[in-house]
Every structure is written in C-alpha cells, then in structure tokens.
Amino acid sequence: MKNITLSLHEDIVRWARVYAAERDTSVSAFVADMLRERMAREQGYRAAESRFFARKPTSRSAPGDRRASREDLHDRRGLR
Known about the structure:
By secondary structure, this protein is mainly α. The chain contains three helices and no strands.
C-alpha cells in the first residue's frame, strides 16, 4: 500500500470524518472505497466500449427495404 497526501477544505474534511465515523470506518478506507468503486465503473465502461466497437456493424434493414427520405425525417408539419 502507498500513502498519499490530499489537500482539502476544512468543511470537506469535517464532513468526511463524520461520514466515516457514522459508518465505523476511517476516512482513508472511505476514500479508498470511493476510488475503488470509481475505478471499477471506469473499467467496466471501457470494457463495454471495447466490446461494442469490436463488433462488426450490421444492417437492421433487409435488402430492398425503403429508407426514409430526408423530407420524411424532417417533416415539421407532421409534428404539429
């Protein structure tokens, strides 16, 4: 394990100490848990992104299907 030093405003430090104490943990463990959760989310997102972009693009329409025209897609009168 490595130690780091953080510079925080007094009100944040006070809140973190109370928050950690209410959960019977230390500020250090609280911050470590937050960072671990954030890292896991980031890694999960990156893994999902890699899987998505690794897939071969597929068409959702069958050959010969009519595609919407620009006029169909931007039909403002039909929305009113």
